[in-house]
Write a structure and sequence with these properties.
Bact_polysacc_biosynth/exp; 7-stranded mixed beta sheet; transmembrane; 7 strands; about 270 residues; Rossmann fold
Length: about 270
């Protein structure tokens, strides 16, 4: 429903702003980041947690991306790729929750935060499984992503309450597929969609650079660099009408406000 594309683009924008960025696929039940970059799924996060690799050995750089399906021409057309590193999900574990709640996972984030300005984590949906809530406590900020017009106001409030109960720091909301004619419809929550067939990612489908940020790679980094920040992006596997989120206490951080037009923040 757009969470993976959202976190990929957000990570790329921050890399284009001059930051050193690490993108981590922690959606171990349904990983997709590797598909968008044409990378092998393993070795990755789970392989480090299981003790088979050092975290540097599971980190993909621009050289690894060039060897995949993301051709050199596409890399040259996409500023920021040289400062964007990627950790794929890795070998599928029998129990993803144990991986994400492990001491090794915390160690991974602690060590990686010394080398990067931002770490973006693509997490599982927050309601169907407990994984997202578990790792939300490790992040400096949580951004909720949802598709507009799919669920009622109460579901988003419940998600907000659940995250606050574990002391997660709610940073803001990314609205996906906003339509000007969206009405206040309410739909039943269907968590089973998340576990359905994995959508196909076409090999020739490359990540597009926003026109408004296309030439910003040579500009100075944003004044407010946060060394070692960990941003966690969590998806509600269904959406809500966008005009509700401001009434429930969500705010846009200063460092992200300059990108609000790209993400359709209100």
């Amino acid at each position: 429903e757009g969470k993976t594309v959202s976190v990929i683009n957000l990570a790329l924008i921050m890399a284009q702003a001059g930051n050193k960025v690490l993108l981590v696929d922690a959606d171990l039940r349904k990983p997709l980041v590797h598909k968008y970059y044409g990378l092998p799924i393993d070795p990755g996060l789970t392989d480090f947690v299981l003790g088979n690799y050092h975290w540097n050995e599971v980190t993909n750089t621009i050289s690894d991306i060039m060897l995949g399906e993301f051709g050199i021409d596409d890399i040259l057309k996409t500023p920021g790729m040289d400062t964007l590193h990627i950790v794929t999900a890795g070998t599928k574990p029998p129990n993803p929750s144990e991986i994400l709640s492990s001491t090794r996972f915390r160690q991974f984030l602690k060590e990686a935060s010394k080398d990067y300005n931002f770490i973006f984590i693509d997490a599982p949906p927050v309601l169907p499984v407990a994984d997202a809530s578990d790792i939300a406590t490790l992040a400096d900020g949580v951004i909720l992503v949802y598709m507009v017009g799919k669920i009622g106001r109460g579901v988003l409030k419940r998600v907000k309450t659940n995250l606050e109960n574990v002391d997660a720091k709610l940073t803001g909301v990314i609205l996906n597929k906003v339509k000007s004619n969206a009405g206040p419809e309410y739909y039943q929550y269907h968590s089973y969609y998340y576990y359905g067939n994995e959508p196909e990612v076409k090999k020739d489908k490359k990540i597009k650079t926003s026109k408004s940020h296309k030439n910003k790679s040579n500009k100075p980094a944003h004044k407010r660099k946060i060394a070692g920040s960990i941003m966690l992006v969590i998806l509600l596997s269904v959406g809500l009408l966008g005009f509700f989120w401001q009434d429930m206490g969500f705010t846009i951080p200063d460092w992200l406000a300059s990108y609000k037009n790209f993400f359709h923040f209100n």
